[in-house]
Amino acid sequence: MGTPLDGVRVVELGQMITGPLAAQLLADMGASVIKIENPEGGDLFRAFDGGRYGRSFISYNRNKRSLAVNLRHTEGKAIALKLIGRADVLLDNFRPGVMDRLGLDRDTLAAANPRLIHASITGFGADGPYSQRPAFDTVGVALSGMGSLVFDPEDPQVSGPTLADNVTGMTACQGILAALYERTRTGRGCRVEINMMEAMIAFMPDPFSNYYQTGTAQGLYTRSSASQSFALRCSDGKLIALHLSSPDKFWRGLLRAIGRPELGADARFTERKDRTKHYQMLRGELAKSFAQRPLAEWVVRLGAEDVPFAPVYSIEEVEHDSQVRHLGTFYEIDHPTQGPQRGIRPVLRFDGERGPVHSAAPLLGEHTESVLAELGIGAEEIARLRAAGAL
């Protein structure tokens, strides 16, 4: 089969992560994505590492074409509207009011394309007391309550990947796909609104449900104790992770793997509820055991007992894992001026096939001429528009 979104045309006005990620996910499923960028620098992530082709930008912009257009110029806005008139999806992640100030308000967009799916990503929603605040990943993590579950109150530090940004971008993609499906039934476009704060709250329903049901808020280790999850150091200094969950067979298998059946008879650990209550004590006992053997031995022993486990890889170790190599998770593709670029393949498979990675992230304005040619704008007119400041 072809990729599911073959023929779907997307115009992206986003920058940084949320909008670009949503658009990249659509591109991975076959959509044609044109990224409209400000000629003066483009997406802010381009210069995040210096230059105009930063590694953060590369991560979120493969399979796209870049059109450098000045939306504050009358003729530049006219070009954007012409593209939007032919598009299926428009995606932006500006603060509320920015699209209106650019002259791309709801009425203008509806007049240009009544079948348009317009996805608008904001930090806190279209209105309300926070609507005009700037929002970045850490803000979403903190305000949603997740920060209380990942920041150590004794030594609070921000760490880990860009969670709120990525969750919001993925949620936006889900909304766009639903709207495209609805349009097949009604023929009408719609506006899809997503904000980072609510996307993060919805991403973790269990702590809220737990609070509403019990009146008790989860703490830093509530989930790990309930799920019986551990990160332990082996004798060679390497880390291993366990997730025993609820089936008793995994607990029994662990006892056999570590050769400590007496822990199963210990009143503190007999039942799962006991192991949850005495989680830190159990963690201490397991730490003693795992410190006796190197990681390679634990891989064999735990695997033989069907215990859910994994080595804690560094980023550079991941691609060398046998299962990762088998799946072909990573790709390499040449950019005509920037050389070989490596990244993660689209993870969805349809009838056993992934969508292709057909192009690396674009240079700023790399496809301006080709996109304008598709709109019927010739070389002389393009030169005039450049001279006028529209491009």
What does this structure look like?
The chain is of the alpha/beta class and 391 residues long. It has helices at residues 18-28, 55-59, 74-86, 98-101, 106-112, 137-143, 147-150, 163-186, 196-203, 205-214, 222-227, 248-258, 262-265, 272-277, 279-290, 295-304, 315-318, 322-327, 368-374, 379-388; strands at residues 9-12, 32-37, 64-68, 89-92, 117-122, 190-195, 229-233, 239-243, 309-311, 330-335, 339-344, 349-350, 353-354. Strands 3-2-1-4-5-6 form a six-stranded parallel sheet, with helices on both faces. Strands 7-8-9 form a three-stranded antiparallel sheet. A two-stranded antiparallel sheet has the order 10-11. The model has no long low-confidence stretch (mean pLDDT 96).
Give the gist of this structure.
The protein has helices at 18-28, 55-59, 74-86, 98-101, 106-112, 137-143, 147-150, 163-186, 196-203, 205-214, 222-227, 248-258, 262-265, 272-277, 279-290, 295-304, 315-318, 322-327, 368-374, 379-388; strands at 9-12, 32-37, 64-68, 89-92, 117-122, 190-195, 229-233, 239-243, 309-311, 330-335, 339-344, 349-350, 353-354. The chain is an alpha/beta fold and 391 residues long.
The low-confidence runs, each spanning 5 or more residues with pLDDT under 50, are none
- What CATH first level of the largest domain would be assigned? Alpha Beta
Describe the strand arrangement of the main beta sheet, using strand numbers.
Answer: 3-2-1-4-5-6
Q: How many structurally independent domains?
A: 2
Task: Quickly give the CATH architecture of the largest domain.
Answer: 3-Layer(aba) Sandwich
Shape: elongated
CATH topology of the largest domain: Rossmann fold
Assembly form of the protein: single chain
Largest sheet: 6 strands, parallel
Q: What would you report as the Rg, rounded to the nearest angstrom?
A: 25 Å
Helix count? 20
Helix proportion of residues, in percent? 40-55%
